[in-house]
Specification:
Helix content is about 40%, strand content about 15%. With about 260 residues, it is α/β, with parallel strands linked by helices. It has a single domain, classed as NAD(P)-binding Rossmann-like Domain (Rossmann fold), CATH 3.40.50. A seven-stranded parallel sheet has the order 3-2-1-4-5-6-7, with helices on both faces. α3 runs parallel beside α5. The longest helix is centred in the middle third of the chain and has 25 residues. The protein is globular, with a radius of gyration of 17 Å.
């Protein structure tokens, strides 16, 4: 299939080959897209190694907490690609005290850093996409973890995901007139580098085993990648402001099934 043929997509968050972002990039290339990756300075070597497996030549610098990096990113994309058809926001971070221990003990600075990295940066990426989108429109997709309720783990990152969900709706509101769609994919728990930083991650896996009506494979990123590519393509042309759950149906079930 070539549902992304001729599209230029920016994929953030690729550090290792086990990441959701890597799977999205691989599937997007398979669907015909021209993919550009971004990397933090400290992750550049690993990102370039992952890029080599994808056959991607371009890895642009981006620290989502630095406004100047977004400005340089926009300028480079304009100069080297001329336009941008879609972007994946796959960046999240919280200091340890915002993820583990007492929720109320987290410092204001840690929470602010988590919010800036994991939520506000979605709006920053939206601005870049809006400035480079062609007349036919574009698609912004972010990675979410359902924030409709409090989790037994996750703490302030759960709050940041709640903010991300709200920001997604406002971005959809403001950019719809330009034909730019904004959506999130709420994935179930997956074994990724990011998951390694979540204390008691196995508690989430156990919950999915008990409650998800469809069998959930925490080692398989492909269903999430396919959902992102759907939203990036014309197949999702009338979908915006949405949270697409790719979680085996966990979100729809109120109590354990097993």
């Amino acid at each position: 299939m070539t549902i992304l043929e001729g599209r230029t997509l920016l994929i953030t968050g690729v550090v290792t080959t086990d990441s959701i972002a890597f799977s999205v990039a691989r599937r997007a290339i398979g669907f015909g897209a021209d993919v550009v990756l971004t990397a933090l300075d400290r992750d550049r070597v690993r990102c370039e190694q992952a890029a080599s497996e994808l056959g991607v030549l371009d890895v642009f610098d981006l620290d989502v907490t630095r406004p100047a990096d977004f400005e340089r990113l926009e300028q480079r994309l304009r100069a080297e690609r001329g336009h941008l058809d879609g972007a994946l926001h796959a960046v999240a971070f919280a200091p340890r005290d915002a993820l583990a221990g007492s929720f109320l003990a987290a410092t204001e600075g840690s929470v602010a850093q988590a919010f800036a990295t994991s939520a506000y940066s979605f709006a920053s990426l939206a601005r870049v996409l809006a400035s480079l989108a062609p007349d036919r429109g574009a698609s912004l997709v972010g990675l979410d973890f359902d924030a409709a309720a409090a989790w037994p783990v996750y703490n302030w990152m759960g709050v940041c995901k709640s903010a991300l969900e709200s920001i997604n709706r406002y971005v959809a509101r403001d950019l719809g007139a330009k034909g730019i769609r904004s959506n999130l994919v709420a994935a179930g728990p997956l074994h990724t580098r990011a998951a390694n930083g979540i204390p008691n991650f196995n508690r989430l896996l156990s919950a999915w085993e008990e409650r998800a009506p469809l069998a959930w494979d925490p080692t398989d990123n492909a269903p999430v990648a396919d959902a992102v590519c759907f939203l990036m393509s014309d197949l999702g042309r009338a979908v915006t402001g949405e949270i697409l759950h790719v979680d085996g149906g966990y979100h729809a079930i109120a109590a354990p099934l097993r």
